[in-house]
Amino acid sequence: MTAHNPIGETAVKDFLLSGKPLTSLEGGVLFGCTGLGRVVSRLRKAGFRIDTRNVSYALALRRINELAQLTPPADLPIREIFFTEYRVKN
By CB neighbour count within 10 A (0-12 exposed, 13-18 middle, 19+ buried), where does 25 fall? Predict the structure, then answer.
């Protein structure tokens, strides 16, 4: 069972509703919210349309490093690892 983080979930929801894309890696690092799927599911049930696409670890890392500092292990193939990116469609 994961720990429930209502403040992180609210921050993720606000971030997504602003139209910005988010991956689970970014949700965990930037907002401390490891339950991104739960937030997305609730938004869908509320009637929001959520677009998804696969993005590389490298892209998510670049976006994270605009706001924080994250350095992956040197031998990690960041261009070959993919995350699902979520974005609320207007």
Answer: buried
